[in-house]
Write a structure and sequence with these properties.
Length: 451
């Protein structure tokens, strides 16, 4: 296992103090504003701006548990993946089933099911994954495109093998050839060259698909990560990128130069910049273009691959973190205008903070005290949707122009699962999993308004 960055001993009283402190803007005049609240005291102060649960729906999904959920682009229906490996499309008027289809897989973890990654802008297809051998846990999961009309697979993309090759760390996960493959199978060894899909999203108005992969084995998946761009019509691979550390923070005796494990690999495609912004485990946020991706894959050895220029390095305020600029990036969001970057960063055993950075002025707008933000979405230049890092965390909606908290979940009537929600493609509305396998619709008060 990869060594984790050494932390000094946490002092309980210090951590408790910061749990109670609010989020404070570094410079209120530098761009977006963030409201003053904490994870322990998250009350909506302006009821006129508050979002509310407008509707509760019991979906017709045969009593199964929801694993993933995604709005369809029509805004009137949703796609749901369940833990018995079925995919449903339901009406959001009454929760009735439109269709269901099986997506047979072999369980790879305790809570598992078909992930609905994204829906095409025209609404005709959506992205999920298939498995080369549904009866084998060690077989790779690959990208598939399914019809929104009935859930059938319309396109299967080629399963990807690892290209990871490091001289200094003495690791080679590249496909070893048919003879070595047979020898490993006969010896009862799992293949160590397999990648599995991690996430996928349509980009450039559906013309391309950006996909992230990780190694299929425990351990190597902490550092063997790839980003690949495909043509959505032909399935042709257009660009490819192997995750690697930047030279100034790399320890090349470790795989890909990382001293810290990648429990997450957050990234966003920025349409107005024609680039991908991603965060790594060393606390660096990089930007890569198709040209950098091509340079990266032209190099065989991971130590020689470019990581892309660094955009931002959030620094920790924790006194218990010895190296202030070496905290794992947990999640990244970019506003649609491409101007503001938001991220969650920190170490799970210590201190996690939330940051805002102005990409135009290259200045930090604010940083929080202790705040365990996980998933972050910026559906507009004004609204932020934030889910807690852990399943026990909270769910928030924030107005960054007014600096107001609009919604905060609780464990009672306003419970929202911090990881299972979807943003309406056109209007101010969020679909989320609540208690009792119900899904709820959140909106501002009054009529519907566009993002």
């Amino acid at each position: 296992m990869i060594p984790i960055l050494r932390l000094s001993r946490m002092r309980y009283t210090y951590l408790l103090l910061f749990l109670l402190l609010p989020i404070l803007p570094a410079n209120p005049q530098s761009g977006a504003k963030f409201p003053n609240f904490s994870t322990q005291n998250s009350e909506v102060k302006n009821p006129n701006l508050a979002w509310q649960i407008q509707n509760r729906i019991s979906p017709s999904i045969d009593g199964q548990n929801i694993f993933s959920i995604q709005y369809h682009t029509d805004g009137r229906s949703a796609l749901i993946g369940t833990t018995d490996f079925y995919i449903y499309r339901i009406s959001l008027l009454d929760g009735s089933m439109i269709w269901k289809t099986e997506a047979k897989m072999h369980y790879q973890k305790e809570f598992d099911g078909p992930k609905i990654f994204d829906v095409s802008p025209d609404g005709k297809t959506f992205l999920s994954f298939g498995q080369t051998d549904p009866n084998s846990q060690s077989s790779e999961r690959y990208l598939v495109m399914r019809s929104s009309t009935n859930g059938s697979i319309t396109k299967s993309f080629t399963a990807e093998n690892s290209l990871f090759y490091s001289i200094t760390a003495d690791i080679d996960y590249r496909y070893p050839g048919d003879e070595s493959k047979t020898n490993r199978e006969e010896a009862g060894l799992s293949p160590n060259w397999i990648l599995t899909i991690d996430n996928a999203k349509f980009i450039e108005n559906g013309k391309k698909i950006l996909v992230s992969y990780k190694h299929n084995m425990e351990g190597p998946h902490f550092y063997d990560r790839r980003l690949i761009i495909y043509d959505s019509i032909s399935g042709e691979k257009l660009n490819d990128f192997q995750l690697t550390a930047d030279p100034n923070s790399a320890d090349w005796t470790q795989p890909a130069g990382f001293e810290i494990a990648h429990l997450q690999f957050p990234y966003q495609y920025v349409n107005k910049r024609n680039s991908i912004i991603y965060g790594n485990a060393h606390g660096r946020i990089h930007e890569i273009t198709p040209s950098i991706m091509n340079q990266n894959m032209s190099m065989e050895i991971v130590e020689e691959k470019p990581a892309g220029p660094i955009v931002y390095i959030p620094r920790s305020d924790s006194e218990d973190l010895e190296t202030k600029d070496r905290q794992t990036i947990r999640s990244v969001a970019i506003t649609p205008d491409g101007n503001y970057l938001y991220c969650s960063a920190g170490v799970e055993t210590g201190f996690i903070q939330f940051y805002g950075f102005n990409l135009a002025t290259k200045k930090e707008m604010f940083r929080s005290t202790f705040f365990d933000a996980g998933e972050i979405y910026a559906p507009s230049n004004q609204i932020l949707i934030i889910g807690g890092l852990y399943s026990s965390g909270k769910f928030y909606i924030v107005d960054t122009q007014k600096g107001e908290l609009l919604f905060a979940s609780n464990d009672d009537d306003n419970y929202i699962h911090p990881h299972l929600f979807s943003v309406h493609p056109k209007q101010k509305e969020v679909l989320a999993l609540s208690t009792g396998n119900q899904i709820v619709i959140l909106r501002p008060q009054g009529g519907t308004t566009p993002w």
